[in-house]
Design goal:
The protein is mostly helical and 95 residues long. The chain has three helices and two strands, in the order αααββ. α1 packs across α2.
Length: 95
């Protein structure tokens, strides 16, 4: 499978992009290079490779939850653009 300039023009049209002739040629070459590399990867024997969702093992690096006292409401409201009845007031987002 290979990408043609028509394919690049179609995708650019869908994305509402205006590309010069040079850019169309450049993207065609780059996308074909990607597909060629993917074909090389398909040639690899992966029958005895166990499927994984990540190439590297993941480790949770988050800290344990610790209960701490909250900031006093007066201090929190100092950063609020507007305040009403002890709460941060924001513009309405629904009509």
């Amino acid at each position: 499978m290979s990408i043609t300039i028509k394919d690049v023009e179609h995708v650019a049209s869908l994305a509402r992009l205006e590309l010069s002739d040079r850019e169309k040629e450049q993207f065609t070459e780059q996308l074909n290079a990607i597909l060629k590399y993917a074909e090389q990867l398909n040639a690899l024997d992966t029958d005895h490779v166990e499927p994984t969702s990540h190439a590297m093992p993941l480790v949770n690096v988050m800290r344990e939850d610790a209960v701490k006292p909250s900031l006093p409401i007066e201090k929190v409201l100092l950063n609020a653009p507007d305040e009403e009845e002890g709460q941060i007031k924001v513009p309405a987002v629904l009509e």
